[in-house]
Write a structure and sequence with these properties.
Helix content: 25-40%
Order of helices and strands: HEEEEEHHEHHEEEH
GO molecular function, one term: S-adenosylmethionine-dependent methyltransferase activity
CATH class: Alpha Beta
Shape: globular
Strand content: 15-25%
CATH superfamily: Vaccinia Virus protein VP39
Number of strands: 9
Organism: Luteibacter yeojuensis
Radius of gyration: 27 Å
CATH topology: Rossmann fold
Number of helices: 6
Keywords: Methyltransferase, Transferase
Structural class: alpha/beta
Number of domains: 1
Pfam families: Methyltransf_11 (PF08241)
Largest sheet: 9 strands, mixed
Oligomer: single chain
CATH architecture: 3-Layer(aba) Sandwich
Protein name: Class I SAM-dependent methyltransferase
Amino acid sequence: MVQFTPDIYATPQIGKLLADETRVLTPLLARCTGDHGLHLTAAAQGEPPAIPLLGHWATLRVAGAVLGGDIRASGLEALPFSDESFGVVLLRHALETTARQDNLLDEAIRVLAPGGMLAITGIHPVGLWSPWVARQSRGIRPRLTWPWWWSQRLVRDEFELSMPRRVGSAWPRAGGAAVGESLVGGGYLLVARKKRPAAVPLRPRAVAVPTPIPGTLASGARRNARESIT
């Protein structure tokens, strides 16, 4: 008999996949700096990777039209943060559980500072994990999306994008040795950097500087001097 799970992101299998993602993500994000990072996650107990140069993480759990965690808010509205306020934004399976995928990605881009890193993880729709998700889920199923789709979105928004990577085991497992990158991994991740605005050089413009006129000249000579300088 199939055992349905109210929240597959609380299962040991997803916990193992999250650990495998962290194994690959940590060195990729190790050089990220800034006062704050934003962690948008589908897992209630998921922890962001430890980044030595980053000051603090704000964590929001994404569940349909609701955002919980450090701040409770509506998932149908803009994120309650100012523009370009985070050095890192990590969407950890959040695009699978949000009510509006494109809107959440747009908001993640908005709050990311220029030069900051954006990381997206998810369950790959091709492989043995996809049927497992379909069997285990009760009610609304996670929306599994090709990483290629998110890559195209980020390229369009002028991000510097690395190649998507597949991570984790080929089939859902609750334990075993840690797995990093794998050609047939059940999860994927991609990392991109938000480009800084290009500096536009300004052409110097000549400015006329008035030349002081000696006060000993006659009025007529002074007038002629000004005209010649002009």
